[in-house]
Amino acid sequence: MTDSTLSAATRRQLLTLAAVGGAGVLSAPAASAEDRHGHGHHGPHGCRTRVTVLGTTDLHGNVYNWNYFANTAYSDSKGNQIGVAKAATLIKAVREERGADRCITLDAGDTIQGTPLAYYYAKIDPITKGAKHPMAVAMNAIGYDAAALGNHEYNYGLDTLRAFERQCRHPLLSANSVDWNTGRPVFRPYVMKRIKVRGQKPVTVGILGLVTPGVAIWDAANVEGKVKFPGIVEQAKVMVPRMKREGADVVVVSCHSGPVPGSSYGDALPFPENASTQLAQEVPDIDAILVGHAHLEVAQQLVKNTVTGRDVLLSEPLYWGMRVSVMDLDLELVRGRWRVTGSQASLLNANTVPEDARIAALVRPAHEKVLTYVNSVIGASTAAMSAATSRYEDTAAMDFINLVQGQAVKDALVGTPQADLPVLSIAAPFNKDAAIPAGDVTVRDVAGLYIFDNTLLGITMTGAEVKAYLEWSARYFKTVPNAGPFTPDQVTNAVTDTAPNGTPDYNYDIMGGLDAPLTYAIDIAQDPGSRIVGLAYDGAPVADGDQFVIAINNYRQSGGGNFPGVKTAPVVYNRQVEIRQLLIDWVTAKGQIDPPSFFSQDWELTANGESVVIQG
């Protein structure tokens, strides 16, 4: 059954079933029939009405509930489903409930990057040459009122972003994307939307867009000398009073910046990466904030403004279209001005509804093109590479990942103080089924080597820190009395104090050198913490004070796996580029993978100095 066949009663039931993060129903009751048709009504203090803000964020090029790399429907362990086509069904249902003319639909950024569907229309059949972006097609059909820019909007350069902007029927907002020389916003900072109230003056809703300032670091190559990114709070303090002077009764911010204070880039910028809570606290006259960037599920968060003492409503609808935020703002006409007297929010779950048939149909031709591309040949391999044994022996498959990661970081460091430091890279054998065949190689073959959506960073570490890192990684192995033979399960996935169910494969890291080999043995007859033997770089023992750049993924750098030294290590590269896409781009550009040219036996498992034998 498609959404077009849903009755009003069914839609109301859908809203109840789909609500998450609260008591199982929408936090605020549906507007009355009178309100849905544009009437205000009178309470004890004056005329009242309600405005509903619907929000998505971090769609990342997902239209369908589809995993292009697995060539099957998307699924995860939590039962989530994805795609703006499903979000559209929820949005339409709320509009039916609240009244479409009482609803404002917003997005909080990161729209045009993240899937092969998005990549294809940036690089393969680019929108700069006339192709229609499927996200613009879908969002236009849904009828968004505005969208904030996210940091990933800048990944493909300003020309692609401007082409996307031209294709959207809604404005792309970013008050703190400003001209490098003049400091003036280079995108529309805000927009006013008027909600009619029969018999009364309309409600004027000001919608402000803000992006995390981290763009200045992550996409420096695309914005240096062109666009600067002042702080979220700082720019809002300029823009919100301006919006109020222009008649905004209500101020809603679409903010591509997480709710939990902090920055992945430390003190590299004077402005924090995740500032939505700070924004609510410090800038008066904001009523609600649609939050993005952090990929968190926040149904409702009330933050007290320190100037006015009033609560500001925050909501973040997870990512990829998994949720839709529903923010209800109740208003009262006081001395001729509408003001918010109460606000509540909840989330709707995309896994409770079918895709909107119209949206799905509109994007289907683009989807079919991309399916062909993903299954297309992008190069050839002179030899097969398998990750099947990567957990316990050095393999070309892991060396390939480390080669691509290390080279990307090294290239980015040209001209920086770290340019001459040796580059190391880490990779985890988290997909035993990954294999690159000899002969033709497809996009999907390469993507199978990297099944997670991790992005690449570069950090600096000392020789002592490198050794401590490898010692922690070696906790993955069980302690054995001799060199075997053993089965793989007899030596891997050890139980530890931090992994009571066994250390997962993705928390075992293999480290390799880019321009020279990093060599070591892991003696698993020894106790954890005393296993790394003969650690050397380019044949020379690694000294405690040696300096290295490490190519590392964002999961590990942010503390995943509790590896020592990484969270506090200086970050020297972070453009938020997906590692999986780097691998695909490398093969596409080179045309050939030649494992003998980069594979070398640099590490091994030993027991009391003897090579461990693993069979089966």
TrEMBL record:
The keyword Transport does not apply. Residues 52-295 form the Calcineurin-like phosphoesterase domain. The keyword Cytoplasm does not apply. Pfam families: 5_nucleotid_C (PF02872), Metallophos (PF00149). Keywords: Hydrolase, Metal-binding, Nucleotide-binding, Signal. InterPro entries: 5'-Nucleotdase_C, 5'-Nucleotdase_C_sf, 5_nucleotidase/apyrase, Calcineurin-like_PHP, CpdB_N, Metallo-depent_PP-like, TAT_signal. PROSITE patterns: TAT (PS51318). Belongs to the 5'-nucleotidase family. This is 5'-nucleotidase C-terminal domain-containing protein. The lineage of its organism: Bacteria, Bacillati, Actinomycetota, Actinomycetes, Micrococcales.
